[in-house]
Design the sequence.
């Protein structure tokens, strides 16, 4: 049986000559596509900055609870870590959402997987934010 391109369902995604999915033309998928590119660049900078500060400027022998306590005494480092957490979670969750859309057929299983992913993502988002925001360095005095 010979199939032509006319026989392929329009809902199926096609690959470009580079082997990747074409850029969305509008709507939610376009915004998530753009978010992945922009957040990836920001995450690269944040992660490299984290790597340099935590492993090159300060050695692993320097990093302790006291080091984190002193770091979290400033709003800047809490904001830095919070931004990195939020971007990494949203970037990763969006990537998994895209993979679920690629590999699960529309219907109940895909919907169930997306609801589960959303629930787990929300829990990590809330727990991580709560830990960073509610940490009180003053409760752990120097010494």
Sequence:
């Amino acid at each position: 049986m010979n199939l032509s391109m006319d026989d392929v369902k329009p809902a199926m995604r096609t690959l470009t000559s580079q082997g990747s999915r074409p850029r969305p033309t509008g709507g939610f998928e376009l915004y998530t596509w753009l978010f992945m590119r922009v957040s990836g660049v920001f995450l690269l900078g944040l992660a490299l900055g984290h790597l340099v500060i935590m492993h090159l400027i300060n050695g692993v022998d320097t990093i302790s609870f006291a080091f984190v306590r002193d770091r979290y005494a400033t709003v800047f480092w809490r904001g830095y870590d919070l931004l990195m957490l939020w971007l990494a979670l949203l970037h990763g969750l969006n990537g998994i959402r895209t993979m679920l859309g690629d590999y699960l057929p529309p219907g109940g299983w895909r919907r169930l997987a997306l609801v589960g992913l959303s629930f787990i993502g929300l829990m990590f988002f809330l727990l991580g934010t709560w830990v960073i925001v509610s940490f009180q360095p003053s409760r752990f005095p120097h010494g």
